[in-house]
Automatic annotation (TrEMBL):
Pfam families: Flg_bb_rod (PF00460), Flg_bbr_C (PF06429), LlgE_F_G_D1 (PF22692). Residues 113-173 form the Flagellar hook protein FlgE/F/G-like D1 domain. The keyword Metal-binding does not apply. This is Flagellar hook-basal body protein. SUPFAM superfamilies: Flagellar hook protein flgE. Belongs to the flagella basal body rod proteins family. GO terms for cellular component: bacterial-type flagellum basal body.
Length: 267
């Protein structure tokens, strides 16, 4: 019976964490470049249950031999193994703001490959983002809305001296006779990236190799790839599963209460 407590409780915890991930997806449904998290549930190892007994041998000494009768497997519950981001391309919407940019994926030989804007975090380290909601700070540098510098292909902050610039489809900032290539980074495996908040990702990435194509569009933003309707449906399913485990846990608790109070009193 105690195993039943743990199994039902683990189910409730797993559903609660799934609810948190889905709620975060819905909250960021309007965040540019946001990639929805997909909770991955895994089962704890199953246990093979055996009935322990003995076989009496009719001898003078009354020998007994141990005996095991297989009963079957026992599932010990589930847990959220990890939240896996969905790096699929989000829709783009036009804003008309010249500092807004969207990175549109083209041909990529690797199914797990991904393209990102290179930025610099508060500690001066390179990070990556799909959120092209950029702006120009008071010193004329192109930055994210959180104040992180947008980098060029050499890893340096981009000085624009204002908002009078154009961006070509291959990611070249053109202004006052200068051409500055945007820092577009590529990774062969987006699953090795980790989220750091504020739309930033940490991981190993490098220059865009031959065979990988992309388009940079100015005046538009990539929308979140969260499907709000689907997320709401998943939340309702998760809530029902939570309630089911809750009822099972309550039934176990009532049975345990009877075992302690009523059966003990009869003894």
């Amino acid at each position: 019976m105690l195993r039943g407590f743990y199994t039902a409780a683990s189910g409730m915890i797993a559903q609660q964490r799934q609810q948190e991930a889905l709620s975060n997806n819905i909250t960021n449904a309007q965040t540019p470049g946001y990639k929805a998290d997909q909770p991955a549930l895994r089962a704890f190892p199953e246990l093979l249950m055996d009935q322990m007994g003995k076989t009496n041998v009719p001898t003078e000494r009354g020998l007994n031999f141990p005996r095991q009768n297989p009963i079957g497997p026992l599932n010990t519950g589930v847990y959220v193994h990890e939240n896996i981001p969905d790096y699929g391309q989000g829709d783009v919407r036009e804003t008309g703001i010249p500092t807004d940019m969207a990175l549109v994926n083209g041909e990529m030989p690797d199914e797990t490959g991904g393209l990102f804007f290179a930025v610099q975090n508060a500690d001066g380290e390179a990070r990556y983002t799909r959120n092209g909601n950029f702006t120009v700070d008071g010193q004329g540098f192109l930055t994210t809305t959180q104040g992180y510098y947008v980098l060029d292909d050499a890893g340096d902050p981009i000085q624009t001296d204002g908002m009078e610039f154009t961006v070509t489809e291959d990611g070249i900032l053109q202004m006052s006779g200068r051409n500055i290539p945007l820092g577009i980074a590529y990774t062969e495996n987006v699953n090795q990236f980790s989220k750091e908040g504020n739309g930033l990702y940490n991981g190993e990435a490098g220059p865009v190799p031959v065979g990988v194509t992309f388009t940079v569009r100015q005046g538009v933003l990539e929308r979140s790839n969260t499907d709000a309707a689907q997320s709401m449906t998943q939340m309702m399913e998760s809530y029902r599963m939570f309630e089911t485990n809750q009822r099972v846990l309550k039934a176990y608790d009532e049975s345990m209460g009877k075992a302690v109070s009523e059966i003990a009193r009869l003894g």
